[in-house]
Design a protein that fits this description.
The protein is elongated. The termini are far apart. The longest helix has 19 residues. It has 6 helices and no strands. The protein is an all-alpha fold.
Length: 118
């Protein structure tokens, strides 16, 4: 590996090309274009609509019944909105699905309140 130049040769053309895309890899990782986490409301938008009483969606078809959705939801909430976990702690007798439905409903109400949609 030649340390005197700005380009690195990693002995594999694909890795070399990937590594040398940006001269400052740390800055590239911190770039706002690399944010792949969705906004909380946008992620839960479909679930919020399903949980509204007049939606006509039966409980068995709620997104909150899908294991993958629950897992992604909890990861997102842990990463972006930790205070919602206090809500779970205060309602220990409910199932995880019920807690998540309550949190999603709260997110929907907060969003509507903040954007004057109530």
């Amino acid at each position: 590996m030649d340390l005197s130049s700005d380009k690195y040769d990693l002995c594999n053309q694909n890795l070399t090309d990937l590594w040398n895309i940006c001269p400052d890899n740390l800055a590239a990782c911190q770039d706002s274009n690399r944010k792949f986490t969705p906004e909380t409301y946008k992620f839960f938008e479909d679930a919020i609509e399903q949980l509204e009483p007049d939606s006509g969606v039966e409980k068995e078809y709620y997104l909150t019944n899908e294991t993958a959705f629950v897992w992604r939801s909890l990861r997102l909430l842990a990463r972006q909105t930790v205070p919602y976990f206090q809500h779970i702690q205060n309602t220990k007798n409910l199932t995880l699905t019920d807690n998540l439905q309550n949190i999603i409903t709260l997110i929907g109400k907060e969003y509507k309140k903040e954007n004057g949609m109530e």
